[in-house]
Amino acid sequence: MEKKKILYYQIDDTLDYESDLLRQWGITDLELVQAKEGDFVEEARDAAGAVVEYQQVTRPIIEQLPQLKIVALQSIGVDNIDLDAATDHGLCVTNCPGFCSEEVALHTIGLIIDLARKITALDRSVRAGSWDPLLGYPIHRLSNKTIGLYFFGSIPKKMIPMLRGLQLSILVYAPTKTAEYLAGFGAEKANSFDELLRRSDILSLHCPLIPETEHLISDRELQLMKKTAFLINTARGRVVDEAALVRALKSGAIQAAAVDVIEDEVGAKSELFTLENAVITPHAAFVSEDSFYGARKTALAQLVQRICRNGRPEHLVNSAVHF
Ligand SMILES: NC(=O)C1=CN([C@@H]2O[C@H](COP(=O)(O)OP(=O)(O)OC[C@H]3O[C@@H](n4cnc5c(N)ncnc54)[C@H](O)[C@@H]3O)[C@@H](O)[C@H]2O)C=CC1
Ligand SMILES: O=C(O)C(=O)COP(=O)(O)O
User: Where is the D-isomer specific 2-hydroxyacid dehydrogenase catalytic domain (predicted)?
Assistant: First the structure.
C-alpha cells in the first residue's frame, strides 16, 4: 500500500509518540516525516498533510501545493495561515482548541503577581549586587483592584477562579457575550473598549491575532489607561504596537508590562528587553508536558480523519472549506 506523507515541523525531534499512537489506532498508511527546516514548499510538495508551527502558510505557498489536504496546527492561534486561501483551495486547517488553557491561565496569573510583587525586577536587582526591597514603582495591594479581560475565550474562563482567589473585580470586553452570561462568571460586561481601558488596573489580552486586533493597543489606548496600570499580553505580539508600549513604559503613561509574546519572535529582538518595568517570557505560556502531548494527539487525530478516513476533522477552523 502506498503510504501518504505527513510533513512534521515540531519542537520535539522524534515522532515516536505519534508512531505509537498510529499503531494503537491501527493506522498503517501514513508515513510521518520530520522536516529539515528547509524550504516548506519543496519539503511539502509530495505531502498529503503537514504539521506546522511558526511557518507562514501564505496564498502563494498554498497555490504551489495542490496535493496538500490538511495543515494541522498544534496550537490555538491560526494567525500564520492564510485561511481564505486555504478555503479557496480546499485545504483544511485545524487547530487544538483549549489544549493549553490551564497553562496560559496560570502563566498570566504568574505575570500579574510578578508585576504586583516585582519578583523578576527584585531578582534582577539582587543578582546585580543590590539589596533594596523598595526598588522601582510603589507596590499596592491587588485586592479590590479591577482586571480587564479583552475577549472571553477558553483562557480567561480558566482564569476566573484564580482571579476570584486574588479578590479582583473582573471587567470583560467581549462584544459577542451578554452581560447575563458574564455575570454567571462573576464578571461585569464593559460596554466599550474605552471603558475597559479607562477602568482596568490590570489589562490582560486574550484575543486571536486577526485584522481587527492587529495593533489594538497603541498610543491612544495606552494614554487612556491608568498611569498605575499593568498591561499583560499572552495573546500575540502584534496585538500590541510595541514601539508605542516602549514609549508608554518610558514616559510613565502606564506602570509596567509583562508579555509572553513580542512582535519579532523570529529575531527574538525587542526594545522591551532594555526596560526595568517590563517582564518578558519567550512564548512559553502554553508549555507543559501535558499540553504538548495533548496537542500532538489532537493534531494527529485531525490528520487521520481527513487523510485516512476522508472525513471532516473535528477541529476544522475554516469550516466553509469544500473537499
Ligand atoms: N502565549 C501562548 O503560549 C498562547 C497564546 N495563545 C493566544 O491566546 C489567544 C486566545 O486563546 P483562547 O482564549 O484559547 O481563544 P479562544 O479561541 O477560546 O477564544 C477567542 C475568543 O475571541 C472571540 N473572538 C474571536 N474573534 C472575534 C471577533 N472578530 N470579534 C469578537 N470576538 C471574537 C471568540 O468568540 C472567543 O470568545 C489565541 O488566539 C492565541 O493567539 C493561545 C495559546 C497559547
Ligand atoms: O496555541 C497557541 O496559540 C500558542 O501560542 C502556543 O502554541 P505555538 O507556540 O503557537 O505552537
Answer: 16-318
Q: Which helix (H) or strand (E) element contains residue 220?
A: helix 219-224
207-227 burial, b at 16+ Cβ within 10 Å, e below that, comes to bebeeebeebbbeebbebbbe
Provide mean pLDDT across the span 140-152.
97
The string of DSSP letters for 186-218 reads TEEEPSSHHHHHHH-SEEEE-----GGGTT-BS
C-alpha 105/C-alpha 116 separation (Å) is: 17
Q: Model pTM?
A: 0.97
ipTM here: 0.97
Catalytic residue positions, numbered: 236, 265, 283
Name the residue of 12, 76, 293 to mutate for ligand 2: max ligand atoms within 8 A of Cβ: 76
The identity of residue 187, as a single letter, is A
Ordered by where they begin, the domains of the chain are 4-99+288-308 (3.40.50.720), 101-280 (3.40.50.720)
Nearest in space to 290 (alpha carbons), one of 99, 104, 20: 99
CB atoms within 10 A of CB 53: 13
pLDDT in tens, 79-128: 999 999 999 999 999 999 999 999 999 999 999 999 999 999 999 999 99
From ligand 1's centre to the CA of 224, what distance in Å? 24
**Cell matching residue 17:** 509518540
Q: Report CA torsion sign: 1, 312, 36, 13.
A: negative
- For atom 11 of ligand 2, which residue has the closest CA? 75
